[in-house]
């Protein structure tokens, strides 16, 4: 029941070196909170170029600049922390469909009280992907049908929390980019096995 509640509520809103960037902002007096937040932002990486014009969901803490395990971002929407991350990029061709995995993260998200799960934290796998139709005919293409972990957990497409209309019909030459995310029960995984169409490939943290 708890898993179904988390998936159901999250799906409505998701369409996105140890550094604690939370405490300085919260402890700073109001007149210095903006300044403190700006200083913290300088410690994080720039938004990777492959995000291009992608606009994150305004209801969820933006994790684009969180690239290394231990990094955290806190704002009015909640707190996001990177548990594991892989910059390993994979490109897989399935017929006319071409899938490029740009980044893979294992994240912990604690929504602000009153958002999504009422402030209850949950952990999930998130991938930023590009989907391209390289052929001359429209195709039906689902980026990832399932993800398996080396801890024995299997995460299915219907359980995802990020979808962003990446699956479905794709016109010739069309490129879609966005997030795919799956809620995790186990967080000890070091290897993900992704299946798309008839292809299967691994990503290691």
Automatic annotation (TrEMBL):
Protein keywords: Signal
Signal peptide stretch: 1-23
Keyword Signal: yes
Source domain of life: Bacteria
Protein's recorded name: Telomeric repeat-binding factor 2
Natural source organism: Bhargavaea cecembensis DSE10
